[in-house]
Amino acid sequence: MSQPTRIPAVFIGHGSPMNAIGTNDWTAAWQALGRALPRPRTILAISAHWYTRGSLVTGNALPPTIHDFGGFPAELYQVRYDAPGDPALATQLVERLQGIPVTVRDDWGLDHGTWSVLVHVFPNADIPVVQLSVDATRPAAFHYALGQQLASLRDEGVLLLGSGGVVHNLARVVWSPAAAVPDWAASFDAQVRAHVASADHQPLVDYHTFGEAARLSVPTAEHYLPLLYVLGAQQPDERADFLCGGFDLGTISMTSLVVGAGR
Questions:
Q1: Per-run averaged pLDDT (10 residues), the chain, 263 residues
Q2: How confident is the model at residue 154, as a pLDDT?
Q3: In CA terms, which of 36, 133, 160, 161 is 20 to 30 Å from 112?
Q4: Best CA proximity match to 113, nearest among 217, 220, 19, 248
Q5: Are 106 and 41 spatial neighbours (Cβ–Cβ below 8 Å)?
Q6: Which CATH number does 9-259 carry?
């Protein structure tokens, strides 16, 4: 009998919510990813925009599309991503993540960290999606270790999707498509990419040791931590390939990668 297909794990720098309705090099890369990936049975999304106390998981059969932002064009608020949920997977996560209390919730759905990407990767919205929150009370090492625990789901047809940004400093954005990238942002992004390429993960867990560049690039951790879930799920026989990169509005990294596509 043939061996089951191990589903890759993916991290997407999602940038502005406007990418949901935009056409650019980043959205083209996300669309190409969807065509190249083996079809998963379920997507487990870890989005920067569900940053909670404790670990929560969506148990909705029909998770709503959440427009968790303000001040954007009306067209963006009309976007819906009506993928089904997977309550069975939510229950399974409670049982298999030993030592980590996980609570199933039905008062959340798919926030824009998830749907603004998936409208391009899987536009038909016909693959079930579950969101796992990012526990704000835990250190970076916890999130990497949780990714290691989730890795076995990839052999069961589950796509792990981390969505955030290696560099994400909204206080210093420049509202121009031609915004210059500060040296600290370019430096931190390059350091992260180098460690990802060499599968040297510990410095990425200890990202604070990168000094001032890290402090400015990750002023709050929620956008960076989803990367650690994906790297934690990387297996020794796998490499990480970059899908796209660059910066949006000067200080938002669009670095995106897939783990395990070519092993």
A1: 76 96 97 97 98 97 96 96 98 91 96 98 98 98 97 97 98 88 98 98 98 98 98 96 96 97 73
A2: 98
A3: 36
A4: 19
A5: no
A6: 3.40.830.10
Q: How many whole angstroms separate alpha carbon 6 and alpha carbon 260?
A: 8
Tokens of 33: 């990813």
226: left (phi over 0), alpha (psi -120 to 50) or beta: alpha
pLDDT, one tens digit per residue, over 6-19 is 999 999 999 999 99
- Put residue 101 in one of left, alpha, beta given phi > 0 → left and psi -120 to 50 → alpha: beta
